[in-house]
Amino acid sequence: MAGYRGVLAFIETAEGKVTSTGREMLGVGRLLADALGETLDALLVGSDIEGVGRDVFSFGADRVFLVSDSLLAKYHPDLYTIAVSDACKQILPSIFLLPQDDVGRDIAPRVAAKLEIGLATDCIDLAIDPDTRLLLQTRRVYGGNATEVLVSRNAFPQLVTVKPRAMAQAKTDSNKQGEIITISVKLDASMARSKLLETVKEEIKGIKLEDAKVVVAGGRGIGGPEGFTLIHELAEVLGGAVGASRAPCDEGWVPTSYKIGQTGKVVTPDLYIAIGISGALQHTVGSLGSRCIVAINNDPEAKIFGVSDFKLVADYRDALPALINKYKEIISS
Ligand SMILES: Cc1cc2nc3c(=O)[nH]c(=O)nc-3n(C[C@H](O)[C@H](O)[C@H](O)COP(=O)(O)OP(=O)(O)OC[C@H]3O[C@@H](n4cnc5c(N)ncnc54)[C@H](O)[C@@H]3O)c2cc1C
Fold first, then answer.
1. For residue 304, how far is its CA from the centre of ligand 1 (angstroms)?
2. In this structure, what CATH number is given to the domain that contains residue 234?
3. CA-to-CA distance for 224 and 316, rounded, in angstroms?
4. Are 213 and 187 part of one and the same domain?
5. How far apart are CA 253 and CA 30, in angstroms?
6. What's the CA-to-centroid distance between 209 and ligand 1, angstroms?
7. How many structural domains is the chain composed of?
8. How large is the average pLDDT for residues 245-267?
9. 304 φ, ψ to 5°?
10. 3-state secondary structure of 163
């Protein structure tokens, strides 16, 4: 549509740095911008973010747009929606990318409603149609059993959220420079219809699940919270993180943050060990990017074996103590 140009990536920051999802937005954004022969722009919203703005260039952005206001120091859905929508109206990108993380999934539908445009959530692939120059937006549907490709023909910007870990992170080029443009948006505290009372930071012991090179995940077959002691022990020996299928999270055996799959986290470790997990598609979509998948299940017909590189038909209560001892032996020798 006339007037709309370039790719805009919404960039989140944490402790003064661009987050890994931010780098993923810039990674895919660069590919799309190059395919269009247009610019890749980054949008940063917050307070005192000029320093981070400069860092964004090293991840490939051509221009950085800043909306800086003390009211935006912490995420607030109403204020961020106004800031992002107004910035979008001024920048007029052809494509606008947000991550499907806590902030992205909260704000994207609000921005879509404000701008009266469509939204494709949780995209796993994005490409430019060479004939129409429109964005091909691929997402999983029917519980992961099929994929659909959406195209937004008449509403701009083409707004999508991107599944974390589905795209490669931007390469770093510390020499890259660009233009920082400050966008002014009228905000006042009365625009916030809700009040943030408290922020509770989740305590993560050990390695973050999304960053772990080894993930040991337990399912309903573990039978209860006590069984997860063995899962934790194996993860510790291997220097990995603990994950789970939905069942143990729903049962309250482990925190929801452990959940891997369609409605949980996507992990891509070197080694993924699935224990007492049947292999429902909604679970395996979160781990299929792993380099090596090992499954331990007492049912030789379990579906998980169909996607595993190594299979062990055993009761986990017999298998895990033996494996833990063996690994300890190997590591200490
Ligand atoms: C819309 C939607 C979204 C969903 N999102 C997710 C998601 O994000 N993540 C997710 O995980 N699920 C998700 N689910 C649920 C999913 O469909 C499955 O129900 C769930 O993954 C099953 O968990 P499980 O494999 O642990 O349990 P089960 O299917 O009950 O499997 C337990 C396995 O443990 C084995 N077992 C039992 N005892 C032992 C033992 N002693 N030793 C070894 N093995 C043993 C059994 O043989 C069995 O294979 C979703 C479902 C829907 C409808």
1. 10
2. 3.40.50.1220
3. 13
4. no
5. 42
6. 19
7. 2
8. 94
9. -60, -30
10. coil
